[in-house]
Amino acid sequence: MPDLSAMFTLETPALELIIRGAVIFLSLLLLMRITGQRESGGLGLTDVLLVVLIAEATAGGLVGDSHSVTDGVIVVTTILVCSVAVDAAACRFPRFSAVIKARPKTLIKDGRFDRKVMRREFMTPEEVRSQLRLHGIQDPTRVHLAYLEPNGMISVLTSKNDESEPPQHPPTH
Question: In terms of CATH architecture, what is 105-159?
Answer without folding.
Answer: 2-Layer Sandwich (3.30)
